[in-house]
Amino acid sequence: MSNIAEVIGWKFNHQQGMSTADGVITAFPGTMPTEAELATYTAEYEVYKAATDAIATLEAAITPRRIRDAFADPTWINAQEALIAIERAKL
Fold first, then answer.
1. In this predicted structure, what is the pLDDT of residue 1?
2. So what's the pLDDT on residue 50?
3. How many CB atoms lie within 10 A of CB 9?
């Protein structure tokens, strides 16, 4: 389960007026989100976080050595780029 501060910060672009304490929203501009809305935001954030983490891992594997090897045989790097594209589509 994700930290609610991270979730609402991501969902609402870290706007001013939001704060949390001990995993509970203590201040929120406008109407306080319902539990159902928070559950939806959390599920969306977890998909986003998993995809961005996967992209970072996949991109980190594309080292200068792999790039040099791709000049002779681009199969691996093309496959890696396809995997990255799959993760980006989730965003």
1. 67
2. 97
3. 15
Apex 1 CA angle, 11 and 7, nearest 5: 10
Q: Read off the pLDDT of residues 40-65 as tens digits, 9 standing for 90 and up.
A: 999 999 999 999 999 999 999 999 99
Question: Any idea what DSSP says for residue 83?
Answer: H
Here the tokens at position 85 are: 């594209």
b/e burial code for range 22-47 (CB count within 10 A of at least 16 → b): eeebeeeeeeebeeeebeebbeebee
